[in-house]
Amino acid sequence: MVAIMSKLSVRNLSKSYPNGNSDVVKVLNDISFDVHEGELLGIVGPSGCGKTTLLKIIAGLLEPDEGQVFIDGSEVHPGHNLVGYIFQQESLFPWRSVRQNIQFGLEIAGLDSSKMNERVNEIIEIVGMEGLEDNYPHEISGGQARKTEMARSLVVSPSILVADEALSNLDAQTRNYLQEEFLRIQKRTGSTIVFVSHNVDEAVFMSDRILVLSNIPATIIAEYKVDVPKPRIRTSQECLAYRSKILDVLRVEQEKAMSRSRQRPFVAT
Ligand SMILES: Nc1ncnc2c1ncn2[C@@H]1O[C@H](COP(=O)(O)OP(=O)(O)OP(=O)(O)O)[C@@H](O)[C@H]1O
Ligand SMILES: [Mg+2]
Predict the structure, then answer these.
(1) What spacing in Å lies between the alpha carbon of 210 and ligand 1's midpoint?
(2) Domain locations in the chain?
(3) pLDDT by residue for the chain (269 residues), tens digit each?
(4) How far is the CA of 16 from the centre of ligand 1 (A)?
(5) Burial (CB count within 10 angstroms: exposed 0-12, middle 13-18, buried 19+), residue 108
(6) Which of 15, 24, 53 is the pocket-test mutation for ligand 1 (most atoms within 8 Å of CB)?
(7) Do 155 and 99 meet the contact criterion of CB atoms below 8 Å apart?
(8) CA distance 83 to 60
(9) Radius of gyration of the chain (CA)
């Protein structure tokens, strides 16, 4: 039998941070999962449970205390540049136009200007930002800024794209539109994507598979293969059934966190 190699394998990742009292807080606890080529994996979990920490480790921006990350079967180490990152906060360079923002990674790679222009034009067309190339970030909408960030990540053809709350801070209509755009662009580019979201409806609408994380120290407490053909109808019975299952799991986590905080002794300061 031939084993199918995963695009991304995360093995036994653990990570703690110092908590300021010469002590540490464990944030990730023994996280392992695989992502297949072309898959869109959604990750949901309570706020502060370590989702950004996990993405940063995958992208090589942070070193785990324990565990390994493999891309295309080879172990990668901090500093690798195989993963495109869409950050939780808006991160466009305000002094660069849309085009200059998008071409940033190609400049770093030292591409000559004709190849660079060709690639940037291609990606501008893919994400649908034609006509806005010369605008600066303050001259485009929040949704267009997210598309520009996506283009900036995709322009260097990363092996994997990680998106951290890529569509938060947008009004509901723009968010829905960009979810569809994100899926359209993924279909066109064939990208493998790990997508973190607070929004369960969004995760169900977009993901091929969803991992649910616990409170810290985060472990994977549930996994759902979303067996609904795309394009999905948000309000379909099938989507709502996944939504309800995931919200139930998150509600139990929330109750656990609240009961832990009630048990904590009150210390007057
Ligand atoms: N550099 C750091 N030093 C110390 N603690 C940190 C650091 N970065 C994150 N933390 C803490 O680790 C925990 C997990 O943070 P992280 O940003 O990964 O969570 P998250 O799930 O992405 O949260 P959110 O849903 O609010 O974006 C939080 O309690 C946070 O305060
Ligand atoms: Mg985060």
Answers:
(1) 21
(2) 92-157
(3) 556 789 999 999 999 999 888 899 999 999 999 999 999 999 999 999 999 999 999 999 999 999 999 999 999 999 999 999 999 888 999 999 999 999 999 999 999 999 999 999 999 999 999 999 999 999 999 999 999 999 999 999 999 999 999 998 889 999 999 999 999 999 999 999 999 998 999 999 999 999 999 999 999 999 999 999 999 999 999 999 999 999 999 999 999 888 887 776 655 44
(4) 10
(5) exposed
(6) 53
(7) no
(8) 8
(9) 20
Instruction: Give, in order, the Cα–Cα distances in Å from 257 to each of 15, 57, 123, 251.
Output: 20, 25, 44, 10
Ligand number with the minimum distance to the CA of 217: 1
Spatial contact of 85 and 150, defined as CB atoms under 8 Å apart = no
* Amino acid at position 51, single letter: K
Q: pTM, whole model, 2 decimals?
A: 0.94
**Strand spans (E) along 77-233:** 83-86, 160-164, 192-196, 209-213, 220-225
- Non-local (6+) Cβ contacts of 257 within 8 A are 46, 215
Structure tokens at 261: 């905080």
In one-letter notation, the amino acid at residue 105 is G
